[in-house]
Amino acid sequence: MHSYIVPLKALFEKHADPARAAPMRKYMRDQFEFLGIKTPERRELQKQFFEKHGLPLVVELKPILRDLWALPQREFQYAGVGLLGRLVEALPHEFITTIEYLIVAKSWWDTVDSLAGEIVGVHFHRFPKVREKYVAKWRASDDFWLRRTCLLFQLGYKEATDFDLLCDLIRENLGSNEFFINKAIGWALRQYARTDPKAVKKFVTATKDLHPLSRREAMKHLE
Hints:
CATH architecture of the largest domain: Alpha Horseshoe
Mean pLDDT: 97
Strand content: under 5%
Number of helices: 13
Largest sheet: none
Distance between the termini: 52 Å
Radius of gyration: 19 Å
CATH class of the largest domain: Mainly Alpha
Shape: globular
Helix content: 55-70%
Structural class: mainly alpha
């Protein structure tokens, strides 16, 4: 285990609450173990840790994140996403390979969505060539978490959203029975509707094969 993680692991374990861990595990369909640290407390612990230990060098980030992902309790993956968020503007373009690993390893909406909107979105904005290459790769993937990331990485782009790209990605996923794809389609459309509601209404109206869940989510604040 990387030396940077050792005191973080000790800090989190000191604040573990088994009574809270059980319902947290159940909420995540028993896919992950939990220490039982709720989000506000975990964020405060992370803040204290960063203030005391500082941030690691970017060159150390890859092994640190992989070690955090290897730990069984989900709070450590959340800490990894938080750490990555603090350094996202300093990442080199080739760090996308590590980001991809974090998406496909221990995949679930709680980490994937944070990585998509907070990390991938920034990284793709900084490196257009990386965006072009990896959107092409991920949109054709059998791993629906990578396709979900494609649908969600523009959530914070507002006027800079490539809506034509988003529409193409949505059309490619029409007919899917995967809840997390159909939910992502609706979420992405609902978010862009804050910027251009007419465009979203037009797309939803014209796309007859849009899943009812996607349609309902997209129109939630427009009807």
